[in-house]
Design a protein that fits this description.
about 150 residues; two-stranded antiparallel sheet
Length: about 150
């Protein structure tokens, strides 16, 4: 008789779990704090935003792949820049974005010139930049300090 009671209780529990309402497109947890309407709606908004962003990324990637393959087919004439109605050239962005894992360093371009030509007022500027996606740590070494260390050795 106890086995029947346990089995009956487990079946009732399963029914309760399956009968648990799906509110706002999400399964409720059974914990009142997490099943509040505000949190469920916020979760739904975030999920919908993720879906929209994912779809937008897929569309952009498909367009780029199509454009790239059309532009690089054999026998096709070279790329001629398109002009706007004002006559200005519409420039293709040739700079590619790339993620660099940590640790990484940037700014070594100041070392590309021979040390004899290093002068503080003539520091070269190159067109590249870096943007951190997460919190990072910055260590700045002045070129003068690098030159001083090189002169010591």
């Amino acid at each position: 008789e106890s086995e029947v009671d346990v089995e009956q209780l487990s079946q009732e529990k399963k029914k309760d779990m399956s009968a648990q309402k799906r509110r706002y497109g999400t399964q409720t947890t059974g914990v009142g704090v997490f099943d509040s309407t505000i949190l469920l709606k916020a979760h739904l908004r975030m999920r919908r935003l993720d879906i929209r962003r994912r779809r937008a990324a897929i569309v952009i990637q498909k367009c780029w792949r199509t454009y790239y393959h059309e532009d690089h087919q054999e026998g096709k004439r070279p790329y001629v820049p398109k002009r706007s109605s004002t006559g200005a050239v519409k420039v293709k962005n040739s700079m590619l974005s790339q993620e660099v894992g940590a640790p990484a360093y940037f700014g070594e371009s100041c070392l590309w010139l021979p040390m004899d030509s290093w002068r503080p007022e003539d520091a070269p500027c190159y067109d590249y930049s870096a943007r951190c996606k997460q919190r990072g740590e910055l260590i700045y070494l002045a070129r003068d300090s690098v030159q001083e260390i090189c002169d010591r050795f």
